[in-house]
Amino acid sequence: MGFPRHRPRRQRTTPAMRRLVAQTSLEPRHLVLPMFVADGIDEPRDIASMPGVVQHTRDSLRRAAADAVTAGVGGLMLFGVPKDDDKDATGSAGVDPDGILNVALRDLAADLGDDTVLMADTCLDEFTDHGHCGVLDGAGRVDNDQTNRRYVELAVAQANSGAHVVGPSGMMDGQVAAIRDGLDAAGYRDTAILAYAAKFASGFYGPFRDAVASSLQGDRRTYQQDPGNAREALHEVELDIEEGADLVMVKPAMSYLDVVRAAADISPVPVAAYQVSGEYSMITAAADHGWIDLDTVVLESLTGIRRAGADIVLTYWAADVARRLS
Fold first, then answer.
1. Residues 6+ away with beta carbon under 8 Å from 270
2. Which end of the chain is flanked by fewer CB atoms within 10 Å, N or C?
3. Nearest Cα to 90, choosing from 144, 138, 133, 39?
4. Is residue 3 one of the residues assigned to a domain?
5. Which of 30, 56, 132, 251 is catalytic?
6. 33 lies in a domain?
7. Which ranges of 57-116 would DSSP assign to H, the alpha helix?
8. 142: DSSP letter
9. Reduced to 3 states, what is the DSSP secondary structure of residue 95?
10. Contact between 172 and 134 (Cβ < 8 Å)
11. Going by C-beta distance under 8 Å and a sequence separation of 6 or more, which residues neighbour residue 274?
12. How many domains, in total, are found in the chain?
């Protein structure tokens, strides 16, 4: 019995042939590097649960950011880690112009200008003494509307500090509309909003909470999405787009590739996906044990997220991968 006339293996014979017919590309411009900057430290501080990732000082952040931009990454997402004494019930350190996130944004804006896309996490969890993403009411529940008012203050402070993009990640109802109105009223009409539109209550966030020294006790299931609810996630995506989101995000990425695909199918704006801390750490741990090849699996995982439909991927490997791809 002869072989069929069309043999797919002919398309795999050489690296050049495979590159020519590749259906999904992974380029440095697709990647955004999340970075942590901490107040009150003199040297970069290792994050034990995220080997290879650190809490930066302002100076080390500037150097690492410049290196990442030189490597060609599409953007930087910045998270601030205040001193414990600066945390309070309303997260005022996030709004303070002299708070660590805002001064670091000004540092990078001065250094990099428009050579990259500077993004800021627009949330309260790093700055509150209770660790929740919002302001609590008298019963200890997150108050949606009070929180949105605080998000507007955060977004305006971040835009004033040089952020090109603000990233509301708290999953409050109406957060995008409130921030858009607030930015426009403050004269920041060109500041874009990356909405964490489908952020699930995931077990993969544990190392991130170490990275930002979270004060959280309990969980965030009353405002983050249930992992089983894909249709609800798409509804959230649609709502955020209607409210003025310039980009929408699915988080985490790897366990929610079906949601990434579905969001890409309906979204008129770019779709981002966040390869979160737990995904980073489990791949790193397996590679450290010699069970997988790190470089191969990292590229495979990121290509899979792109193949699912993500236009942009946030990953802690962004700079390393960009250097490899350049």
1. 246, 247, 248, 311, 312
2. N
3. 133
4. no
5. 251
6. yes
7. 58-71, 92-95, 100-112
8. B
9. helix
10. yes
11. 34, 249, 250, 251, 252, 253, 313, 314, 315
12. 1
Q: Note whether residue 85 is domain-resident.
A: yes
pTM here is 0.94
Q: Is the pLDDT of residue 1 over 60?
A: no
Instruction: Tell whether 209 is in a known binding site.
Output: yes
236 is in an annotated binding site: yes
Burial 241-265 (b: 16+ CB within 10 A, else e): bebbbbbbbbbbbbebbebbebbbe
Task: Report residue 292 as tokens.
Answer: 């997988």
Q: How far is CA 250 from CA 54, 197, 237, 253, 318, in A?
A: 24, 6, 9, 6, 17
Q: Which entry of 62, 150, 180, 199 is annotated as an active-site residue?
A: 199
Q: Tokens representing 218?
A: 């309990």
Compute the distance between CA of residue 119 and CA of residue 194 in angstroms, rounded to an integer: 9
Q: Is 96 helix (H, G, I), strand (E, B) or coil?
A: coil
DSSP letters for 244-302:
T-SEEEEESSGGGHHHHHHHHHH-SS-EEEE--HHHHHHHHHHHHTTSS-HHHHHHHHH
CA distance 67 to 211: 21
* Residue 199 annotated to the active site: yes
> Where does the pLDDT of residue 101 fall: very low under 50, low under 70, confident under 90, or very high at 90 and above?
very high
DSSP assignment of 2-53 equals PPPS--GGGGGSSHHHHHHH-SS---GGGEEEEEEEETT-SS-EE-TTSTT-
* Residue 220 pLDDT > 80: no
Catalytic: 83? Answer: no
Q: Which amino acid is at 237?
A: V
- For 100-113, give one letter per residue: b (16+ CB within 10 A) or e: bbbbbbbbbeebbe
Instruction: Choose the weakest-confidence range: 88-92, 297-301, 308-312.
Output: 88-92
Owning domain of residue 152: 26-247
Residue 215 among known ligand-binding residues: no
**Which CATH number characterizes residue 218's domain?**
3.20.20.70
Taking a C-beta distance cutoff of 8 angstroms, is the pair 185, 23 a contact? no
Residue 220 annotated as lining a ligand binding site: yes
Kindly state whether residue 280 falls inside one of the protein's structural domains: no
